[in-house]
Design a protein that fits this description.
Number of helices: 25
Strand order of the largest sheet: 7-14-12-9
Oligomer: single chain
Strand content: 5-15%
């Protein structure tokens, strides 16, 4: 017993000595004033090599002593472990120098805190759902294959029999690429399973089914004895969480769809009639027509998310994410109906004819009517604060910043001239927003149809050129939605990616659109609810889906590690060489129209908090234009992420109010439907509608 104790203490002493001998020096650098470009490079002495480096930065591999792309002013940790298991933990911070780096570093932990709430997974928290991504096997791709590669890959010879237990790095096959033999190696340890027989074609770039099909490039699979949890480069487990914010938005949309009797489907025809002006009453109270209100609200949602966001979603979730994106878009139509009906019902029109409406009004006065005055006031103020922050950030700086980056990428003359670009855009935005909602509606009423038309036409051309891919494309969408591989996170992972993109893009349930629609000329609040339900259809079911189809039809959904807009641009460019220039211009128009729409949303939230005078509006507009310049001039990173999250956070107070008042909306809908069937609603004479159309 005594010898065993001595042996134990000796072992502890040796391990402690190793840990003490493990010395780590760090080279910490902030190479420029650009944000997120700091790095820490370690030099390790002592212990027993090789060393493992487990960084808190998930993109840094376990074997890398250097972590790059770090946020200045934020602490990062690393655990250095040697071959004997001795380890030491260190914490480092790249010092922030430029003012933008200080802002970015300050907001990064705030964004992380907001994200922990918005993207919290309640199902995994209570043990219903395991968010960790597992794989039963790992597939082996043809060597030297990459998305959009030209060539034929043929399996020349298997070097090992099927069923062989292989180790990672073992040579398993010879592959012929355009006549040149290349060795394929096992990329995992397990049991070898053939996916292609000797002499068989693995991948042929001339075969459209191969280009569209997800995973056509694989020649073998390595089956694991037990499911293996997938990890990030730094060793952290990969997880496909079910974010609370997505559940909140989608379940709300599903509830309103059922509560309103599938108004998203049965009300579609009447919504089109209203948007066309069939029921426009020139004497109705309000400032803009049904169509202008629709165009303003659509311009606030159709934007970078439809181009860049969809590309990211399809890259992460595969073709199957498209299916769930469409489902979420259809459900979101009902949320828009409810919030915009209430927006009109509880609006206030002053003696000058100016309209003040939106969630601030129906949350306060709608709940007050139910004896919940305190709750209503709190929710209204909370919503207004979030809306102002969102208008300066996601609806302004983010749009100016990203439109400049994208345009500078296509037009080099703009590089380095972000400040001047911001000044020009601020002037253009100022000219429009100075005239209020009427001016904004006139501009969006012209820009939105043109930019959407160009984008849709371009998408249809790309799809038409690749029309022979229609079968494989829709098979990829259907199979990917209902039976995706674990590498895409399974059905739950793909569903969440699709739902998330749709919810973030069309803003159904966020309440922003209700501010624009409250200015519509109408005597009947549900009429504007009908018009509003077209927004998610246009934004998600049409525009987002077309973007996804362009990516799938051209095979670009298999490309990884490429930025969203760049991926979409490449997909269009593969068919129309000059279209990336048009796309860049369209992106600017999308961003511009989003800015002018959000200026109105933010202004109404501002006037709710600080008073309805014109002086108050001038103060807000001046601040808004200042932030346009700031957004285009500097990189703000986490500041923009923070403001973008405020848009999502707006849905919390908004949907609470919508749930409480849904019964009231249902009664108003039933009464409106009765009047519609009885012919009691104002209907513009046919001659007048024809004259207006011509």
């Amino acid at each position: 017993m005594r010898k065993s104790l001595l042996s134990f203490f000796f072992s502890v002493f040796i391990l402690t000595a190793y840990a003490q001998d493990l010395k780590v020096d760090a080279n910490i650098q902030n190479p420029s004033k650009e944000i997120n470009d700091g790095f820490v490079e370690l030099s390790v002495q002592g212990g027993t090599p090789p060393y493992e480096y487990r960084w808190s930065s998930q993109e840094t591999p376990l074997d890398s002593p250097r972590a790059e792309g770090l946020v200045e002013g934020v602490e990062y940790s690393v655990v250095v472990k040697d071959a004997t298991g001795a380890e030491v933990e260190k914490t480092y911070k790249v010092p922030a120098q430029a003012i933008t780096e200080h802002f970015n570093g300050t907001f990064a932990p705030i964004v992380a805190s907001m994200g922990s709430i918005l993207f919290w997974d309640p199902f995994s928290a209570i043990g219903i759902y395991d968010p960790v991504v597992y794989a039963d096997f790992r597939r082996v791709p043809a060597p030297e294959w990459e998305a959009n590669v030209d060539g034929k890959f043929i399996l020349s010879e298997w070097l090992l029999p099927e069923g062989t237990e292989v180790e990672e790095g073992d040579a398993i096959a010879m592959v012929s690429k355009d006549g040149e033999n290349i060795t394929a190696y096992a990329n995992a340890s397990g049991t070898l399973r053939y996916l292609v027989q000797e002499g068989g074609m693995i991948y042929n770039s001339e075969n459209k089914e191969h280009v569209i099909e997800q995973g056509a490039q694989y020649l073998a699979a390595i089956d694991y004895e037990n499911p293996v949890a997938l990890t990030h480069p730094n060793g952290d487990l990969q997880q496909k969480d079910i974010p609370f914010i997505v559940i909140w938005l989608v379940l709300g949309a599903l509830f309103f769809t059922l509560r309103m009797g599938f108004i998203n489907i049965r009300g579609f025809k009447h919504a089109l009639q209203l948007a066309k002006g069939k029921y426009d009453d020139p004497n109705a109270p309000g400032q803009v027509t049904h169509f202008q209100a629709l165009a303003t609200a659509v311009s606030g949602t159709v934007g970078l998310g439809n181009i860049a966001g969809v590309a990211v979603a399809v890259s992460l979730g595969g073709a199957g994410a498209t299916f769930w994106m469409i489902i979420a878009g259809l459900l979101g139509m009902s949320s828009k109906f409810v919030e915009c009906t209430l927006g009109v019902k509880y609006r206030f029109i002053n003696s000058e004819g100016r309209v003040f409406g939106g969630p601030m009004n129906y949350l306060r006065y709608g709940l007050e009517k139910r004896g919940q005055k305190g709750l209503g006031k709190f929710l209204a103020v909370f919503f207004a604060i979030l809306a102002i922050g969102a208008s300066f950030g996601g609806g302004n700086m983010f749009q100016a910043n990203q439109s400049f980056v994208i345009l500078a990428g296509e037009f080099p003359v703009l590089v380095g001239n972000g400040f001047l670009f911001g000044i020009v855009v601020a002037i253009l935005v100022g000219i429009v927003i100075i005239g209020g909602i009427s001016s904004i509606a006139k501009v969006t009423g012209k820009i939105v149809p043109v930019m959407a038309g160009i984008y849709i036409l371009g998408a249809l051309v790309v799809i038409g050129v690749n029309i022979e891919n229609i079968g494989p494309a829709f098979s990829a969408i259907w199979d990917g939605a209902l039976s995706p591989s674990a590498l895409k996170g399974g059905v739950i992972g793909v569903l969440i990616v699709g739902f998330q993109r749709a919810a973030f893009s069309n803003e159904a349930g966020v309440g922003s659109a209700a501010i624009a629609h409250s200015a519509a000329k109408t005597h009947h609040p549900p009429s504007e609810g009908f018009v509003a339900l077209l927004e998610p259809f246009i934004d998600t079911v049409v525009v987002c889906t077309l973007t996804a189809l362009v990516l799938i039809f051209t095979g670009m959904h298999e490309v990884e590690g490429v930025g969203g807009v760049e991926l979409t641009s490449s997909a269009f460019g593969s068919v129309i060489s000059w279209f990336p220039y048009v796309l860049a211009t369209a992106v600017f128009l999308f961003a511009f129209s989003t800015m002018i729409s959000w200026s109105y949303y933010g202004m109404r939230a501002w006037t709710y908090l600080f008073g309805k005078s014109k002086k108050t509006e001038v103060v807000y507009k001046s601040l808004f234009l200042f932030f346009v310049v700031v957004g285009a001039s500097v990189s703000l990173g986490a500041v923009l992420d923070f403001s973008d999250m405020m848009i999502l956070a707006m849905s919390f107070p908004n949907i609470i109010g919508l749930y409480i008042m849904s019964g009231e909306v249902k009664k108003d809908l039933d009464e409106y439907s009765r009047k519609l069937k009885a012919g009691e609603l104002f209907r513009k004479p046919e001659k007048e509608r024809v004259k207006k159309a011509s």
